[in-house]
Amino acid sequence: MEEENKGEEPNPNEEKTQGEEPKNNETISLGGNITLNGFQNIEGGKMIVLKKIIGNHTRQIQEKKSDYEKLVITLEGEETNATIKAEVTAGGSQTTAEDTQNNIFTAIDGALKKILEQI
User: Fold this and answer.
1) 82, pLDDT greater than 80
2) Is residue 85 part of a domain?
3) Whole-model pTM?
């Protein structure tokens, strides 16, 4: 039997139940060679901006590495305390970078800039 909701209105925008951790293991594919892990809870408007940031950096990576194969970006934590792990595969070798920021946009930008510095 479910507990009664004592005076609280249910929040239709709230997807998780009390005590349940968010599931950040779902993947989103962008164009076949970019994979995003843990981004399923990001709002549509923010996702558009993130895709532009990722797309711009991916183009720069492809310009530097003609044997670019794929990019995998993983979000750990929340938007306001984001740890981004980025991994580029080019010519069979992998380059990884990580950045943690209070803002998801700066975390992604930082991790991808670190990748660009390494390749």
Assistant:
1) yes
2) yes
3) 0.77
